[in-house]
Amino acid sequence: MNKKAVIVLSGGLDSTTCMGIAKSEGYDLFPITFHYGQRHNREVQQAIEVARHYEVADHRIVDLTFLKDIGGSALTDETVDVPTEAEEGIPVTYVPARNMIFLALASAYAEVIGATAVYTGVSAVDYSGYPDCRPEFIHSMEETINLATKAGVTGQNIQVKTPLINLSKKETIEAGLLLNVPYELTTSCYNGKETACGQCDSCQLRLKGFKEAGSADPIAYEN
Ligand SMILES: [Zn+2]
């Protein structure tokens, strides 16, 4: 029986790359997708398509609209504008405690299905302003997960894997292309429309990454 991994899958470029990496590392994939009222709700549909592409045995979609109810982020609060350029400090697209909540739920799922790894596509390079994308947080969360679970206490440690943490967008895309990651099924646009805007911070970062990797982005853009 293959080893199992839970993949925090948003339907974006990074988490989809993690699907390819986890598969290449010999894991059976168990993606988990969080629906939290994000503006780029379209991501959830993309996550379903990515999961289908990888023919996963199970794909969990978890409702976390509480994160929208409390707001506090440009991604969940319509009164806060999404920026078109990178900001200093912690960006307004930071979602309060998002990765801590995601990893907590992913590790609960991992424990139940007997998975030994949880993958998350965080990068400390491109999103250095997000506190929950820092290696310090990931190490601390992994320790906490193993203190908090039966799996951890009984020696079935759950590893939190962050293969992209030191990679730029260019390097992530290069790694993914080698693994035939289906980037045509992903979306990165914060505006969440049918066609990506090409203007928002996230679209710009993605386009720059493909350009630097010497490859064409397979998705459509408005302009
Ligand atoms: Zn966009």
Describe what this molecule looks like in 3D:
This protein has 223 residues and is an alpha/beta fold. It has one domain (3-212): HUPs (Rossmann fold, 3-Layer(aba) Sandwich), CATH 3.40.50. 38% of the residues lie in helices and 11% in strands. Strands 3-2-1-4-5 form a five-stranded parallel β-sheet, sandwiched between helices. Strand 1, helix 1 (13-24) and strand 2 (27-35) form a beta-alpha-beta unit. It is globular and about 55 Å long. The N and C termini lie far apart (47 Å). Zinc ion binds next to helix 8.
**Could you give the order of strands across the largest sheet?**
3-2-1-4-5
Biggest sheet descriptor: 5 strands, parallel
Order of helices and strands: EHEHEHHEHHEHH
Low-confidence runs of at least 5 consecutive residues? none
CATH class: Alpha Beta
> What ligands does this structure carry?
zinc ion
CATH homologous superfamily classification: HUPs
The number of distinct β-strands equals: 5
SS element count, helices: 8
Please name the CATH topology.
Rossmann fold
CATH architectural category: 3-Layer(aba) Sandwich
Oligomer: single chain
Structural class: alpha/beta
Shape: globular
Mean pLDDT: 92
Radius of gyration: 17 Å
Q: What percentage of the residues does DSSP assign to strands (E)? A: 5-15%
Ends apart, CA distance between termini: 47 Å
Q: What share of the residues lie within helices?
A: 25-40%
Number of domains: 1
